[in-house]
């Protein structure tokens, strides 16, 4: 059905053998492959059958580039709050790249130091679509929503403790954003945010 | 800051006098005006100072058209599950219109009768961006996510009872969508969905 | 009290010795035996006292066939969404078999690719009772509920992350199904679903 | 698609006019009609266009009998805990009757007085399928599950207060039943329980 | 025990007669009196026995000034996000005043328009202690926390709908603030915030 | 303050050294000692300084008998549902014994097999106070509440999975008991139940 | 089955006619009658068929004294935190009286003014069993648990707002009491607390 | 922006290398450094580049003193309930010290033994600001709030089990405090409490 989209495996709860088997089958098609939530062992198994496999360890994601598709000219900006949010940033980044997008990362611009965010505003506003990644209280999405006029896909992360309840706090924050133009994906779902952003970036 | 976007009032928890006062002030600018969650009395008060005010009773939304902006050629599709979801559909519809979008409504195509949905697929696929409105279990977003390749903004509604917990059930369903390309706004937030969809439709 | 039903042990929170002891006692009766949530070590201990013990590793379930009961002619269809749901499918399958049912498995037909589901519809409709197993957003139960006219026992699984909250998301989805004819068992309770389905299949 | 099933309207959140309009359209088909969660005013409106309409005030349900279908010989037993659960019992009763089932009601047999339940056991065991309706702590489903060998559809009700949390307490009780053969529908969903029970009773 | 603090009544769940009676008794002491969550009828009853009673209708709070205490020179800043948060602002304001504090209100500076907030920063920084009042996603506390070096008492409000869950969203946001120096009181508890702020302001 | 009550340590979250140190200090008083939630290593450390220390491994509880107090003539009955509830039973048992009570255990009488419970009724009714221990859906407390006229202290256990939510299900069941005479302690709190029961048994 | 206990009706969700009918039937037995959660209209209906009926308006409870039973010599102490908790106090009081107990009320001794509580300690310690009624944060039960050596039945009330979540806050507080000897009943369940206390008081 | 405040790292979810790198960079500034939630390995890595680094193992916090700032004369009192709360006490203590405060610790004064608390009252009242640390039911904050007239920063801890839900119980208790003057930080957030207290202590 879909043209131009990669084949995707969600590795959580699968065995190394299962992941390897699925990739093997996918290699017969002429499409890019992404395997999210993959551990190192899975990567080694995939590498053994496909030299071109790459592994982003922080993002826990395997990518195999088969399509020669050119990258977009418009870009997706991935904006994140703290360094602990980087795994989600990387998952989003690799996904967006595997789908053929130009991507710019602007990290460590959480709202506790608003001036660092304001300093990057032109770069962010230049994007066609923006992914915001934030844990703890997740206020970055609201603040950015008030500053830019581009579609924002917000990803709450599970970074935090106590009354954060595994990301619930930032999820609720983002859903209740007082600024408009923000829509939300599941906690830690960097992949899903990039997928939505890619469809929008290619419109 | 923003050009081309309407002035917006959220009327819940405001008095009739407050709403009237805010509209009065907004009328001095050359922009469209939307007042969401407005009751009839608020409408009458607004009408008394502005002949052009319109009221969508089902959607509980007042709109005042000031801009002569042309409508977009690409369209937003608003797809909904049951008749009880119509108030949210109408809020989204009026918001999208006030922002200058061509909009098509496809209602009553819930997943309990999948063939009614499949029959409308071409019309839905023709849209540039899709708003999905569904309560109860909210499965419509996932199903549609698998069938189309356009960005989907999903709006869970509070329609239902018991273990629906005021829309929580459909909210979680949509956040956990097994199909990609779906991002989510707050429960019953037709306004927010239309706002995001409009930004995307105008890209 | 019950005739024709197997003896059942729930192994979670029991020691290997306790499981072995209970099985030893049960072997004195002429009934089939099921031990759910059993690990490999438990299986080895049981095997050491009963040659006929079988172990389904994915489903984590030990079965011992003692009754010569014939299988039913009507069948139970077990329909599941993704490969990560397979452990629950296998628990249901082994339980249904140990209770003397003909069973057909239709896996990997999640709603993100509705056409795969539609392709299997005749096989599913041929069943006397249907078990639906799905995690993430669990929409499969609603969709199938609208397509078939047989009793559906829905099993939400804990497959997913973030706002899935350990299966809560699919549990709520299934309880709020907009299609009728769907009743629900506990999260990951493949055993319970098969038990209910077996009683119905033998009516 | 469905043969032998009534047309159903869920009146909650619909206007009197909408309900009347939908019934008017349904009357053109030769099927029974059920309108659940209907208030008296809705009944009067329906009555004005259809002499045959009946209203069960406790169950808040309108039924219109058009089919001449004979009633089943096997029966559905509806077993309930307290008098406050009666509205749900009545919704289930009317639904099951409109679908052509013989139905027997056994009310006020909650577990606080287990002997009243035991006294009715033969009548309950004689049913082909059992609906259990209980609020507060909902223990009736587990107790009955251990006493009978028929499929049980359990309906938690919102009867109770405080830590009952609107029926959550009995819902969880029923989902965690230590007795097997119990599956569960939404809180207060007498309609859904009867629908499932009817499909099973006609197998 | 306490010197310099007013007598306080929490009127919710009390009858008009009870409130009047308690005030009557309190009037015998030489202290200021506050009655929070008071309706108009309660005010009239209090006014009938004490000419000096004042009523802030928006804040639903009655105050009676008996002490001749001078106001503090340092001030408390009450900063709020939207107009719907004003009732909580007023409850905090009246409480702080009744406790002898100089107070400055800075309203309608929510994070969706960050520049309005930045414009008021000097005034806010001049305070000895800051009360932040915000509903919806409550991000204002975090943003302000990063901009000022004064103790912040954050009050989440129940303003919002859907996934706001009656103020839970802003409560969690404020508890998880990524900026330091923020402590939190109960949802809508303007009184408690002012009480804490007053103790701090008088240190 | 208290006479006749043992010294009690809650070992969870303490180091072996801390537990040993506290016991050492307690040994200087002439009272019985209980250390709950103690692991084997803690027991060995305690044993090394006190020959008389005993360890109930299942109940994870260390007891040291110093008082020569005679046991009560009236007894506490501890009634439990399944074998997985035994750790809590043992914690309650050891606590009650260390407080000088005669105790009788009646285990494995869950409501799924009500006749086993009815068979033990005389023994249970003979107690002065009853502790009920049950996990999964916790219905045993309600059923017993209707059958006996003695005070019941109910202990929900965390036994179960999925919608059990770590014992929440049985906790809510017990709090909502439709039978009277039941009060409840924290999930898995065998110690607390025995403590309350002991005070009552000695009245 | 039970001797010496009153007949009890829970009026919530029953019609005036139903309540009257049940009382009429109960009057044929020689037992006291309690009707909890009764409104004034129900009282008038009951009064019309039974001159001896009494109504405690604050506690919303009807009592009819038929038994000539003498009151106990030992007493139950009902200790409460604030004036808003009085309805629950009254429900408990009337229930305990109707069951033949001597009862002493000690109200308005919440922990915010610990000295008022300490002043009443002898009176409280003189009781055979203690009922503690408290809303908001419910700390009174823990504090009292550390001061007395009698069984405590704690009743959380729904008094409070915001993060009180309808009594959840005090319920959890009481279940987690760091002092021993405290067991808990449902939120606002004055009746249940008195029932348990009465059984204990009569041991 | 901030003068006189330490540089702070939150180590959770960072690698040893990342922590070391950040500290290395921070050492170039003339400020104190705090690294919270740090494990031993992180400490060794930091020690290897900075001889002056200290590690509080219980509090899991690294501190590096660079500023010669004098300590305050007024003091912060840290009051805690049980020994299991000590890690949070230590995190708060080290943070307050690194920010230049005189600090006094009063531990093990939980409400189950109120007299131990009353014995320390003068010391506590002498503080300029008070941090209260308590788990389980967290009642200490309310009790102290009624006894002192200084600002209280309450820290709920995750100490407890079952219905404690990871600290939720004490969090809600503290937010609902019936005594005034109490504001709350996140569960286990000793750092945040000390930060707020330090700002107040230096006013
Ligand atoms: N129905 C709605 N749901 C969510 N946000 C809304 C809604 N209507 C308006 N808003 C937002 O609320 C803001 C106006 O709030 P206010 O100033 O309180 O009227 C607008 O700028 C919108 O971003
Ligand atoms: N996986 C399972 N989920 C729910 N209930 C189960 C499961 N396996 C066994 N049971 C039930 O647990 C009972 C056995 O429990 P036990 O006596 O503790 O081994 C059986 O009678 C079954 O009804
Ligand atoms: N009380 C009820 N609870 C749950 N579902 C219902 C109820 N009554 C009707 N329904 C379902 O709702 C559908 C009708 O919805 P609607 O078209 O909105 O009137 C029917 O086909 C039934 O499946
Ligand atoms: N709006 C409020 N929110 C929280 N606590 C309050 C509020 N108003 C008053 N209080 C507290 O409630 C106490 C009075 O309660 P009461 O004796 O029931 O009137 C006062 O001492 C205050 O501490
Ligand atoms: Mg924006
Ligand atoms: Mg799609
Ligand atoms: Mg169906
Ligand atoms: Mg059964
Ligand atoms: Mg700050
Ligand atoms: Mg009883
Ligand atoms: Mg005590
Ligand atoms: Mg105080």
TrEMBL record, chains A, B, C, D, E, F, G, H:
A GO biological process held by the record: 'de novo' IMP biosynthetic process
Superkingdom classification of source: Bacteria
Any one Gene Ontology molecular-function term assigned to this protein's record: hydrolase activity
Chain ranges of the PurE domain: 74-203
Name of this protein: PurE domain-containing protein
Lineage: Bacteria, Bacillati, Bacillota, Clostridia, Peptostreptococcales
Residues of the full protein shown: 46 to 248 of 248
